[in-house]
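Two folds, back to back.
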Amino acid sequence: MSARVALVLVSHSRQLADGVAELAAQMAPGVRIFAAGGTDSGELGTSYDRVLEAVTAGLSAAGGVVVLADLGSAILTVESVLEVLDEGPEKVVLADAPFVEGAVAAAVTAHGSGTVAEVLDSAEHAGGTFAVREPKAPHSPVDDAGDVAQRTVVVRNPLGLHARPAAVLARLIAGLDAAVTINGANGASVLEIMKLGATGGQGLVLSATGPAAEQAIDVVATAIEGGFGEV
């Protein structure tokens, strides 16, 4: 299923916009991401025409667009474009979000067929991503019962849950019929997974609730213990 939402990345720098688009695209293959960086002559700044073209292309490609901008004048340019287009917030919206982290989070949610509102929410809650938190103490084992399941797994790949495996894992979990947490973090959020700072050999506590909790635990445990092709 193709993504329902496209992203537009507006930056004063063409290289920055293109680079963030490349990073987000690797995290979420298949999501349409349009970079609108720099002026028409390639200098630092923003271009109304480039932003308008990108947003229009996004609407044609996906039907909904979430825009991220890096600095104040880029935001003003986006707002001018949105005013002229006169599309409702259910179609096109500007995110109040960190440029890089917000783009990655938004792309992963869009990959999971998120709506404009869901993609926007992911982008705007992406702040503080790389303040790595202390690993939580393992929970006491519980009996798997009904729609609740729990298991401890070990990270096999030496580099741990860095960006690429975190994105793979978040996309996998987002498609499951269960809510899955990893050491208490939302398993469907690539940024929450990266915050864990999980390294090779570290144990992780998986918890799932929902109609397919046990199956979800099996799928996630298999993915983590498989090493994401890096073992």
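---
second:
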Amino acid sequence: MKLELLPNEILIECLVYLNTFEIFYSFDTLNSRFSHLIRNTSIYLNLQHIHKTKFSRFCSEILPEIKQNISSLHLSNKDACGQINAFFSLYLLDGYSHLQSLALTYLEEENLSQLKSILPLCTSLHSFHLNSSQIDDELIISVLPLGHLQKLSIKTLESFLIYVQQPTIITHLIISKCSLEQIRYQLLEIIPMLQYLNIKTITRDKQSIKSDTNHRAIHLKQLIIGQFRYPFDAFTNFLKKTPNLRSLTFTNAINDQKFINPNEWENLINSSLFNLNTFKFRLTCSNLCRDVVSYNYNRFQNGFWLDQHHWYTELLTNNTSHCIYTVPYISKSFELEENTKRSNYRSINISNIFKQVENLTFIYNETKDYSSFYFPNVISLKIQQKKETKYLQSLKSIVNLSNIKHLDISLYQKGSLSEELIEILRESSQLSSITIDPIDLKLLFNDKELCLYMNKIIKKLNIHKHGYYLFEDSNQVATFCEVFSNIQQLRCSFKAPNYIIFLLKRLSKLSTIHVYLRRISDRNLFYSLVEEVFRDCNYRIRIKDLRSNLMKLSIWIDRYYD
């Protein structure tokens, strides 16, 4: 059946799987029916990782006509310096009467004054996500409308507990850091309907909280905890207040041996967690001997875990730590070291064990058998090699290279770069981003075949190395610009600002650049030079002082903006 023959209801369901830009640039001018349809449905607008040209044109040509239909908006300053400020400057959120979800990542100080006036007007917000380590979220929390808010993601609880005094209707909460006392004695009082709680780190509070009320989380169904800096007994006392918990995810570097004792978990589940049907964990031990960990791992292989609940576990060991985990492995990141060993009691398809791993660090050992490892969905691969040995066949046996989008070879062995790297580039059909040591990069310039491959596929390049400056003269800059003439994003270090001007003139497709360099004495002169380069372009520039003699320069460029 042809797409245009589908009824509107089905078309709308199909459009959910496309991003906003694909929808408008593919269907808006197709015919009047499609144009009317996409302009009169709820719009989920995600502006992360967007090229400045697309951002500018979308905001000027399309956004004015559809802003009333935006129900979800995600803005980010990452790799797009000043995006949040630019968006708010163009169109204030008071015009978005249907906005229900707002996510702001890599927020900066300059955004706070705008948000202070804009957020109170977003009275229909059901979901608010804030992710930024650079600011204190106090000002945001103080003006955040809570009337309809059900999902909230913030850095800490301090400001929230200060400004929110009455019970809310929030059901989903994500926190980067808080204390157990804050949860038990304060949080559950003002979020009594909490169903989903995700906390990266639960750590001890410096100031004790005194309260006679120990609230129960009777509505909590799903709990996810990263680091837990309390003893196991404190953990069990907390979970006893969650009688209706159905799903528990726990990824802790343990300091209490009880955490790897299956009998302790079995007693807790049988006595207090009657509704628990999903239990995922990764328990890492660095201060316990292998025999102790292996003994406890063997005790997980009984009827309660295997037959009654079907919670299967495996053991990972290396020279520095041991890890007991449920399968599939729950973390998105994995470091496959030279001596990493996997132990298991059941025959399980290895393609499913590490299917959730997206970021893999591969440290090659020529004597190691890799047959027990396979990572089918890795998109970011970091290769570390200490010896000049052939590793590609081993790598291909454990990773599906066709899924790789980013390659980090910043800790690669210099002498073995070219030959195996070319083969990786050939087989990694989605690869567009690479991180490499600038010293190694200079060596690669002599390999013409490799340079051709990198010129063709690499769009994002990171060659920043603290204390090292890549270019010594303009000839090296010219060579770099020739090899990487198609890059759109660049992160690097320079000794002199004049090289930056040279790059900006030569790299015609560059959209984002982050440069670490020595502090510029005459910034007005530098600004005038940049303005001369971009006299026909729309761009945003920011300079941030990092230390007494070091600064970071970021520029977000639209070279084709009219």
